[in-house]
Amino acid sequence: MTEERFEALLQENRLFQPPESFQAQANVQSSEIYDMARADRLGFWAKQSERITWFEPWTQVLDWQPPFAQWFVGGKLNAAYNCLDRHVEGWRRNKAAIIFEGEPGDSRVLTYQDLHREVSQFANVLKSLGVHKGDRVTIYLPMIPEAAIAMLACARIGAPHSVVFGGFSAESLRDRINDAEAKVLITSDGSFRRGSVVQLKANADTALKGANSVEHVVVVKRTGIEVAMTAGRDVWYHEVMQDVSSVCPAEPMDAEDMLYILYTSGTTGKPKGVVHTTGGYMVGVASTHQMIFDIKEEDVYWCTADVGWVTGHSYIVYGPLANGSTVVMYEGSPDYPAKDRFWQVIEKYKVSILYTAPTAIRTFMKWGPKYPQSRDLSSLRLLGTVGEPINPEAWMWYYKYIGAERCPIVDTWWQTETGMIMMTPLPGVTPLKPGSCTVPFPGVEVEILDRAGQPVPKGSGGYLTVSQPWPAMLRTVYRDPDRYANTYFSNWPGIYFTGDGAKWDEEGYFWVLGRVDDVINVSGHRIGTMEVESALVDHPMVAEAACIGKNHEVKGQAVAAFVTLKEGVEVRDDLIDELKAHVAKKIGALARPDDIFFTAELPKTRSGKIMRRLLRDIAEGRALGDTTTLADASVVNSLKERYKEEG
Ligand code: PRX
Q1: What are the angstrom distances between the C-alpha of 163 and each of 147, 154, 181, 453, 509?
Q2: Does residue 308 belong to any structural domain of this protein?
Q3: Whose Cα sits closest to atom 23 in ligand 1?
Q4: According to a count of CB atoms within 10 Å of the terminal CB, is the N or C end of the chain lower?
Q5: Rounded distance, CA 168 to CA 180, Å?
Q6: Contacts with 57 (C-beta within 8 Å, 6 or more apart), sequence order
Q7: Do 130 and 195 fall within a single domain?
Q8: 61: CA distance to ligand 1 center in Å?
Q9: How many CA atoms lie within 13 A of 170 on its CB side?
Q10: What residues make up the domain containing 533?
Q11: Nearest of 142, 146, 126 to residue 134 by alpha carbon
């Protein structure tokens, strides 16, 4: 939270009213919904639960034993049933559920009936491989329909899934498999990325050396590259799907049974297994998706996130499919084969709702408006963003060049832990301010607190918290309830701390300022400084490392690392590249530091705390210019003198 940031935000006073034509057709047309939810929060959520088909009704909306919540107590349901079976019973059976666009330009449409059949068959395959209710399944796949099929097949039989983003390294995959003790791994031969092939199966094989819980690996053939198959362990998806029954009843699950684990970075080195359960999560994602994205039967909805992140879980798979929507799924990157690929996809499928990330928008800004201008984007009617604060310039660009000043923008603030969108405009109701995620969703109680736990007055900033439980909230950290309680609920008893800093303005609009903890948000993805530091120290030449997030024009933040080498190690020219590659190998390319600075010692306070503000100033060129080596310990010492105040 830098001073300049505050200044910039304070100057933003443009206001955009919902267009009348949009409001007149919107799913939510009146701000009364906020008053209703405020007057009876649990009643509001009870009403939302009617969107979901329950096998047995719940008896209590919420049981709150801080910090542990149970929602819709006693209710029985199945997430896959809600996403598939209930649509297949009616006219939606022939509606497109997933429109898939592959990077090489191949495409595939799965109707709800197709998806129901494939999911049921694959659920039977999982059963035949020994997966029972409660067993964990790890999914390491590209953005192909099989990723959604695998998730829904797990949900169908009550096996919690743990999806690992395909960009993570073998070692990250191994850690996540081991933490979840997954019985089956679902992967593919490879995935397409900018015309080349990423070897997912080879990564999986490396990961499995040292991940002994996995009994079987199911491999989807996507790229056709040659891969090694281990007899007795590995099977091809297309082979095991042959001659399998498409009848597989959806398992009745308790509202509080685990639906999935999703690993996310925290302030320590070890990723946290965020646990989401079934009933509250489905109610949360279905209701937010319907109201925030103003979903209608005829919409073509495209969320550009990867299924490996929570955005993909909640707003590609569970929310949209529960609502019977048509979802576009795109496999590749925005610049392959050309920089107009997103706009070509929108033109081709007449996408009406686009949900993407500020980092992508800043990239498009850099490329210039000629790419979107070369395509017909007139089908668009609503835009969304997620993942990090959007700077007002990028918001205005998105509004003008993509939305043609016609489409409202929903800037949605939420987290892996919250499961569902928490702060957002309602597009037919809420006037927009570029750069603000506006106000909490109805039924969500957000507060900005000072250190002492007192709410700050309008016009000021502090710690962003959620003061009341919400249905899609994480229930615990997998097998580590203490870490759950300590990480999220220890600052102020019973109050959830988000890790973000925020301010609210005189009109009660929220402005999220970024993380206050040691988490770096690179292109909307959370990376723990400790994770990168551990990866660096793992290199045989490194004695100590400290990482910080430095401002970056496109990525929002980039990782900068300060490294102290072991005694006697000479700094070689190629060592920087080697260390960067080492981090990519240990964690994944998204954690690769942009800069590495060698330093004879790390600047620490007397109590041993690393002086991160000093490091940030160095990384952004304020303290030293562009010096990349702080070889002389006296330089660090004199800098330390200047920064004595840092706590
Ligand atoms: O710092 C906030 C930022 O992303 C964090 C959550 O990251 P993750 O769990 O990976 O989930 C990302 C997708 C939901 C938050 O703590 N963040 C997310 N959305 C916004 C945001 N910051 C500002 N504005 C947003 N709309």
Answers
A1: 9, 11, 13, 36, 34
A2: yes
A3: 389
A4: C
A5: 16
A6: 74, 75
A7: yes
A8: 27
A9: 16
A10: 519-646
A11: 126
Alpha carbon 323 to chain centroid, angstroms: 20
Please list the ranges in the chain whose pLDDT falls under 70.
1-12, 624-633, 635, 642-647
> Which atom of ligand 1 is found nearest the CA of 437?
26
Please write the tens of the pLDDT for every residue from 272-294.
Answer: 999 999 999 999 999 999 999 99
Residue 510 lies in a domain: no
Residue with CA at minimum distance from ligand 1 atom 21: 388
Q: Is residue 15 part of a domain?
A: no
- Choice from 285, 318, 356, 386 to test ligand 1 binding pocket (greatest atom count within 8 A of CB): 386
Position 443 scores a pLDDT of: 98
546 and 585 assigned to the same domain: yes
Q: Answer for the pair 32, 452: CB distance below 8 angstroms, yes or no.
A: no
* Domain co-membership, 221 together with 127: yes
Closest by Cα among 550, 462, 549, 478 to 513: 462
Q: Phi, psi at residue 540, to the nearest 5°? A: -60, -20
- Residue-level pLDDT at 5: 45
| Nearest protein CA to atom 5 of ligand 1, as residue | 415
Q: Work out which ligand 1 atom sits closest to the CA atom of 414.
A: 14
Closest CA to 84 of 328, 321, 280, 315: 321
Please check whether residues 461 and 546 belong to one and the same domain. Answer: no
Ligand 1 centroid to Cα of residue 415, in Å, is 5
Ligand 1 interacting residues, C-beta cut-off 6 A: 264, 310-311, 386-389, 411-416, 437, 498-500, 512, 514-515, 521, 524-526
pLDDT computed for residue 26 by the predictor:
98
In this structure, the answer to whether residues 497 and 524 fall within a common structural domain is no
The Å distance, Cα 454 to ligand 1 centre, comes to 24
Model pLDDT, residue 630: 65
Quote the CA–CA distance of 224 and 222 in Å, as a whole number.
6
Given 435, 467, 502, which residue is the final one in a domain?
502
What is the predicted pLDDT for the residue at 611? 84
CA distance 23 to 115: 33
Q: How far apart are CA 597 and CA 627, in angstroms?
A: 8
Which pLDDT belongs to residue 9? 53
Pocket test for ligand 1, best of 356, 526, 555 (most atoms within 8 A of CB): 526
CB 383 within 8 A of CB 520: no
CA 87 to chain centre: 27
- Tens-place pLDDT, residues 327-381: 999 999 999 999 999 999 999 999 999 999 999 999 999 999 999 999 999 999 9
State which of 502, 535, 550 marks the end of a domain.
502
Task: Take atom 12 of ligand 1 and give the residue whose Cα is closest.
Answer: 387
The alpha carbon of 580 and the centre of ligand 1 are apart by a number of angstroms equal to: 25
Ligand 1 centroid, distance to 640 Cα (angstroms): 33
pLDDT value, residue 269: 74
Q: Whose CA is nearest to atom 7 of ligand 1?
A: 415
| Residue located nearest, by CA, to atom 22 of ligand 1 | 388
Total count of domains within the chain: 2
Ligand 1 center to 230 CA (angstroms): 40
